[in-house]
């Protein structure tokens, strides 16, 4: 995940391996249990297609004013579970 705004890196999680890497450790490193703070234990998902999954894994909104930036995202890739995330970037 990368959040880049107005020429500034805000949040970067590039991971150790690229997504096309053939390294055997890559499968674990890009898995939800190793890569995400919130996930369904003993379950996983795979991205099927970037066009299809863009409706199930996406940023819902970005609200910005002179005090903060608020980002809302959703992960609806698990069966019977939807994970919502909010990021608040406070401007000082």
Observed structural traits:
92 residues; mainly beta; three-stranded antiparallel beta sheet; two-stranded antiparallel ribbon; 13% helix
Q: Note the overall shape.
A: globular
Percent helix, as a range, is 10-25%
Along the chain, the helix and strand elements come as EEHHHEEE
How many E-type strands? 5
Beta-strand content: 35-45%
Give the terminus-to-terminus CA distance: 24 Å
Mean pLDDT: 76
Q: How would a crystallographer describe the biggest sheet?
A: 3 strands, antiparallel
Q: Could you list the spans in which at least 5 consecutive residues all have pLDDT below 50? A: none
Counting H and I runs of at least 4 residues, what is the number of helices? Answer: 3
Cα-atom Rg, whole angstroms? 15 Å
Please, what is the oligomeric state? single chain
Major β-sheet strand ordering: 3-4-5
Helix/strand-derived category reads mainly beta
What are the SSEs and their pairings?
Blueprint lengths: L1 E4 L2 E5 L13 H4 L2 H4 L14 H4 L3 E8 L3 E8 L7 E8 L2
Antiparallel strand pairs: 1-2, 3-4, 4-5
Care to describe what's here?
It is a single chain. With 92 residues, the chain is mainly beta. Helices cover 13% and strands 36% of the residues. It has three helices and five strands, in the order E-E-H-H-H-E-E-E. The strands form two sheets. Strands 3-4-5 form a three-stranded antiparallel sheet, with no helix packed on it. Strand 4 (68-75) and strand 5 (83-90) form a beta hairpin. The longest helix has 4 residues, at 26-29. It is globular and about 45 Å long. The two termini are 24 Å apart.
